[in-house]
Amino acid sequence: MRKPHCTEQALLKRRDVIKGGAVVLASAFFPFSIEILNAGSAVAAPPAPSGTGEERILWNSCNVNCGSRCALRVHVKDGVITRVETDNTGDDRYGMQQLRACPRGRSMRQRIYAEQRIPYPLRRVGNRGEGKFERISWEEAFKEIGQRLRGTIDTYGNEAVYLNYGTGALGSTMGKSWPPAATPVARLMNLVGGYLNHYSDYSTCQITVGMPYLYGGSWVDGNSLSDMENSELAVFFGNNPSETRMSGCKAKTLQHARFTRNTRVIIIDPRYTDSMVSVGDEWIPIRPGTDAALSAALAYVMITEDLIDKPFLAKYTIGYDEESLPKGAPAGSSYKSYILGQGPDKTPKTPAWASRITGIPPARIEKLAREIAGARPCFICQGWGPQRTTNGENISRAIGMLAVLTGNVGIKGGNTGARENAGYKLPMATFPTLENPVKTELSCFNWYQAIDDYKQMTATTAGIRGRERLIAPIKFIWNYAGNCLTNQHGGINQMHPILLDDKKCETIVVIDTTLTPSARYADFLLPSCLNLEEHDWTSDGDSNIAYVIFDNKCIEPLGEAKSIYDICAGVANELGVKEAFTEGRTQYQWLEKLYAESRKAIPELPPTLEEAYTMGVYKRYFPENHIAYKAFRDDPEANPLPSPSGKIEIYSPRLAELAETWTLLPGQAITALPEYIPNPEGAISPERKEWPLQLIGHHYKQRTHSTYGNCWWLQEVAPQELWINPIDAKARGIEFGDRVKVFNGRGVSFVKAKITPRIMPGVVSLPEGAWHTPNAAGEDTNGCVNVLTKLLPTALAKGNPHHTNLVQVEKA
Ligand SMILES: Nc1nc2c(c(=O)[nH]1)N[C@H]1C(S)=C(S)[C@@H](COP(=O)(O)OP(=O)(O)OC[C@H]3O[C@@H](n4cnc5c(=O)[nH]c(N)nc54)[C@H](O)[C@@H]3O)O[C@H]1N2
Ligand SMILES: Nc1nc2c(c(=O)[nH]1)N[C@H]1C(S)=C(S)[C@@H](COP(=O)(O)OP(=O)(O)OC[C@H]3O[C@@H](n4cnc5c(=O)[nH]c(N)nc54)[C@H](O)[C@@H]3O)O[C@H]1N2
Ligand code: SF4
Ligand SMILES: [Mo]
Predict the structure, then answer these.
(1) Which GO cellular component terms, listed alphabetically, does the Swiss-Prot or TrEMBL entry include (predicted)?
(2) d(C-alpha 769, C-alpha 702), whole Å
């Protein structure tokens, strides 16, 4: 049956439903049932149209965390948004292209006027997680949250206060939700002694922490995507820009990069992706978690057939062969020894060896090695799918090795094996958030352990930084614009008891626009503005373009929503630091100050902020393609890499030391070389007898993670479905569109099956981000992949192994 549209009409109807005393909100739209005592009459509904005003068109943006950032042109009449268009200005030539929104941004109106908008501040009344709240005033909310915060700090110290990951307002300037240190919440906390910080992000934990052991520094750069115009061949390992970089701006870059020289594109992915459809020449399906085995076999062919770039290896790297091993490394520990089977494992990494692991025929591996080595130059890159897996740290380095072996680093048309460079940015000023007096950090993913048994968490057991060990449990969580308390985190059923217990983490403050699955665990649930309801700006860029979009306040905030700035100022008042927090400025006055600073760096911006808001978008063309590590390539003596040796460290002495000193769990490994490590719950693990299918959860065009998941238009064009190959479906008697049960030892999810040869046999994918919607038995009914993923972090990065899972599927 067709669901009604989540439009302003639906919302207006809800006003009637929850008028008066206690109301229960429970419908297909809600992830859990919510009871609001003393609901009153003011809910998040738009004003009734008076029908007299003129229509105005105001610029704003879609600034969620999808890797793009697009302009919106918002039609407003009588204080109500009537239509959302996108950038249709200028001549759309490459380099100054239109910042066109994808279908999600164009569905913004359904998100603004969704019936799940949080109407007013709410305080939990029942047990945590029960879904019972009562309406409170903002004054009460500020007062109680301030008191609780003070209490937590007095009893446990500032390191008991955690700012959780949340990227729903990633693109904002004043409303920024991540990284934690850039948010208004950080400014508030830094005025009262600081907070426990996190490092890395759910996107890139393993590549962020792992790959710099190869190149040095804190992040491995890539050439700009546009530089593919100089490549003969491009090889994408699990990189799917047509779906993960969906803006018109980035799509235009991809087309430009691919078709300027007609560069051949090979895509290695368990799925025939949308990128394969739009720019791919050949698809090589691979079993999840096995790219390091493929890379090793490619290296085997290149070495044995003498296809490697020996002068490059000699000049720019250490650890390739026994002669170039750093001092102290044991004999037989060079990369060449590992590949040829002359190292401790005595296993030559032949194409036949890799074929059994990856599922790719030996002949295709041999041919691919010759193609990569023979292409002049070759753009080798990886998305972040391959590394979001157990032992993904080694996978990121193993793919990087292909660029190193073939000398494609630091040159036009080449790349490092990392993802393409994120693009140029304009030097817009940012909101000052002050310095965090607390230096302790943990990985973005293992915070749940700091609630449960922080005493076990040390530098060598849990990757704690800034201290030898945690000195306090997490007792207070700020969760702003994020759904990572549960939906996006993983191991939802295992997280549930940890979050339910309010003796463990005593206070959870959820600040969001929407009643999400994470909102269920809130003690205080505060409505914040959507970015169309406040003044702000967002800036971004791509290969040859950078831009800023000035976000107008298009409508008044729905219900009692406030900006995060005003919310933090309210709590600051309670803690006696309001003056220090605001410096006497409103949000708009801060923007004026930051705008004046930005104009010093970008004098062509209009004289006043007001004029900038009318102009809407400012773009700049950058003719140069970015080439990562060009200076190092040109002169390695004068421009060494930021690694200890100044060179590419194929054998990493630092990792060799960590391998000796860190405490790891079964199935986790740290190795000095980028070795292939078989994953528990992986392609060749014995558990496949019981759980025969590998499960991944790709990033999907219906949503940006969970955001937009409540928009009916998008549910219609890109429904939530389990991708399953016809061979696996037939073996289970599953027909197209059947409702299926996907399950393992951690959870159950029901969803419709999409039977398609676009996914290889033995692998299924449940697009990540669907809203966890449990039934009475606690089984998810909405295709939420994170009831099936696990909490066990990866070895080195302590990150999220979201794509390493085994499941069974049957007809429901
Ligand atoms: N299984 C699996 N899980 C994954 C992943 C995976 O690949 N597989 N990917 C991971 C990755 S890479 C990431 S980055 C995380 C993302 O996880 P999150 O950062 O939690 O992303 P969202 O689910 O989009 O949640 C963003 C929240 O911000 C709110 N929001 C949106 N716009 C606004 C706004 O304008 N103002 C305010 N105040 N709030 C707003 C939304 O309502 C939503 O609740 O998920 C991770 N989870
Ligand atoms: N439409 C949309 N776009 C998004 C997002 C979104 O939610 N929706 N999220 C944004 C965010 S925050 C991020 S971090 C990025 C994420 O960007 P990515 O992490 O690159 O996205 P994924 O879909 O997880 O993985 C990319 C591809 O890797 C494949 N893959 C999975 N496992 C393996 C493997 O072991 N080996 C190989 N070779 N391939 C594998 C998947 O099938 C997928 O096609 O996307 C961003 N863009
Ligand atoms: S979700 Fe779509 S419209 Fe929004 S920023 Fe990303 S690509 Fe642009
Ligand atoms: Mo991400």
Answers:
(1) outer membrane-bounded periplasmic space
(2) 9
Q: Indicate if the pLDDT at residue 744 is higher than 60.
A: yes
Please, which residues have CB within 8 angstroms of residue 637's CB and are 6 or more apart in sequence? Answer: none
At position 326, the amino acid (one-letter code) is: P
Share of the chain above pLDDT 70, in %: 95
Beta strands across the sheet bearing 536-542: 536-542, 545-551, 617-621
How far is ligand 2, taken at its centre, from the CA of residue 704, in Å?
11
Report the alpha-carbon distance of residue 282 to residue 125 in Å, rounded.
57
Q: Which domains does the chain have, with CATH numbers?
A: 55-113 (3.30.200.210), 122-203+430-535+555-621 (3.40.50.740), 210-423+627-650 (3.40.228.10), 686-811 (2.40.40.20)
| Nearby residues of 373 by Cβ (< 8 Å), 6 or more positions away | 302, 305, 307, 308, 405, 406
Over the chain, what is the mean pLDDT?
Answer: 95
Is there a contact between 805 and 789 (Cβ–Cβ < 8 Å)? yes
From ligand 1's centre to the CA of 570, what distance in Å?
25
What are residue 655's phi and psi, to 5 degrees? -70, -35
Question: What does 298-352 look like in DSSP terms, one character per residue?
Answer: HHHHHHHTT-S-HHHHHHHEESSSGGGPPTTPPTT-SHHHHHHT-STT-----HH
* 671-715 tens-digit pLDDT: 999 999 999 999 999 999 999 999 999 999 999 999 999 999 999
Whether 66 lines ligand 3, by a CB cut-off of 6 Å, is yes
Q: Which tokens go with 449?
A: 């352990």
Task: Please state, in angstroms and rounded to a whole number, the distance separating the CA atoms of residues 538 and 171.
Answer: 5
- Which DSSP string do the residues of 628-696 spell out, in sequence order? TTHHHHH-TTTS--SSTTSSEESS-HHHHHHHHHS---TT----SS----PPTTSTT-GGGGTS-EEEE
Q: pTM of the prediction? A: 0.96
* Sign, Cα dihedral of 179, 180, 183, 187: negative
Q: How far is the CA of 240 from the centre of ligand 2 (A)?
A: 6
Q: Indicate the top mutation candidate among 178, 240, 705, 744 to test ligand 1's pocket, ranked by most ligand atoms within 8 A of CB.
A: 705
Tens digit of pLDDT for each residue in 56-105? Answer: 999 999 999 999 999 999 999 999 999 999 999 998 999 999 999 999 99
83 three-state secondary structure: strand
